[in-house]
Structure prediction request, 359 residues.
Amino acid sequence: MSAIPHEKLDRIIQRFAAVEHDMSSGAVSGEAFVRLSREYADLEPAAKKAQELRKAYDERRDLDEMVRAGGELAQMAEAERPVLDGKIEKSEREIRILLLPRDAADDKNVILEVRAGTGGDEAAIFAGDLFRMYQRYAASKGWRAEVISASEGEHGGYKEVIANIHGAGAFAHLKFESGVHRVQRVPATETQGRIHTSAATVAVLPEAEDVDIKIEDKDLRIDVYRSSGPGGQSVNTTDSAVRITHIPTGIAVAQQTEKSQLKNKNAAMKLLRARLYEIERQRIDSERSAARRGQVGSGDRSERIRTYNFPQGRCTDHRINLTLYKLDQIIEGPALEEMVQALMTNHQAELLAQQEHAA
Prediction:
């Protein structure tokens, strides 16, 4: 792998210094400041690594000159050079990873949707298991998970559950979870001990902000209606449920979890904004490269991405052919990190290979 040109390192360092100056000058505000803040956060690790690598290149140049000069110092320089070369090789790989094209949504909060698929009651129970896995995983990362809406299954779990996950890097870690998750196990209701196969779909959407996507009032149709309930005192007697339809796309979202119409409207708008933002992201991705979405799975809901086999205690991710025999620990949440990190590493390797091939 060739050395990174000094000019490229200098451009990174200089751009970081310029952004830092503009932010501290007070000359920018509003959306421009938000954009600069994001660029600053993106550039900072690469700029620091570029400075470190630039210094290491200078040190190697000095060692090379000492070797050429000969004498006693040349022997010392020869001994130091392999250690420095190892440090340089490591830093070059790290900075190449830092300079890979970043998903602009990686640092965003997440809208997580889990739905029961084929398999009836067992699918709903599995959807509940998956959702609790993500809740525990979020807790292990110090993130906050809030249920937006839920439709419970008749025998436990969820027919559908939607939640907001707040935390730094939530989308970067969870985005590869989108797709069909399959479970193989003996249901509690199975008297013959037969293994059943059922499935649940997971969708992970980045939470959109006002600066990400503009929604015109004229493009919305808002309907209010009475919330449905199980009967008795819990039935909402006011028109607090809200359905919002985005007329240009036909996308409709509904919320009735809260007793307040305003809260339901705000929750519905958050969900609508996330879905429209995801459509826009996919459009841009497809224009840039059809292959990009195939690197760790497209996230298409028809794609089976993972199998949870309880009799064998294994969890297999089919996109990277990784099998871990620690299913209980994965379902409990924290051990999911091993699977997530493997997917992220594979994604980086694919992007690096593409860059090297293009070069």
Remarks:
- The chain has a mean pLDDT of 83.
- The radius of gyration is 26 Å.
- The longest strand covers residues 196-206.
- The chain has eight helices and eleven strands.
